[in-house]
Amino acid sequence: MTKYFDGTMMDLEAKVAAKLSDYRFQHVLRVRDYARKLAMANGVDVEQAEVAALVHDYAKERSNSEFLTLIRVKNLDPDLANWGNYIWHGVVGAEIIHDELNIQDNDILNAVREHTTGAAEGMTKLSQVIFMADYLELGRNFSGVDAARRITDESLTAGIRYQIVHTVLHLVKKETAIYPKSITTYNYWINQK
Ligand SMILES: [Fe+2]
Ligand SMILES: [Fe+2]
């Protein structure tokens, strides 16, 4: 049994694996490993970080129509409908994780909600750890990943700043729309020391 899920960690792994392609499940396991390391270094409950990491992409492979239905049924921000899977699997995914896996810990649910965009003030250490573990897990090989890992080992705050700056830069270069919350996250973290 874990404190955050009615079952063993292996039960949770099996439930997550059942809803994801093997490719994505392997990513989830690597995020779990990286989150464990960052949790230990930053005084976050390791079991809580492991559960959050295991469920963070639980809803990633759901259909657009399932997300759009949930946005309506759950009375979520109607503007969400204008975005896509990239935003939905976190924000709407948290609802799915709550309902299907009976995960009730608010810090875990918020970490899932925030894992693609980050957040401005109020991001818990757990949420920061999941945000960075998703970005830095050992399967990632974008240019600068080694520097990003080193920076994050020294300071979680500096790591978050690195990630949000580079993500916004990347989206601008692609001339892709930027979800407003990503800009809010950027404005907040560029000033954090
Ligand atoms: Fe994700
Ligand atoms: Fe992920």
TrEMBL record:
Its EC number is 3.6.1.41. Residues 24-139 form the HD domain. InterPro entries: Diverse_Catalytic_Enzymes, HD/PDEase_dom, HD_domain, YqeK. It catalyses: P(1),P(4)-bis(5'-adenosyl) tetraphosphate + H2O = 2 ADP + 2 H(+). Transmembrane segments: none annotated. GO terms for molecular function: bis(5'-nucleosyl)-tetraphosphatase (symmetrical) activity; metal ion binding; nucleotide binding. Keywords: Hydrolase, Iron, Metal-binding, Nucleotide-binding. It holds the Pfam family HD. This is bis(5'-nucleosyl)-tetraphosphatase (symmetrical).
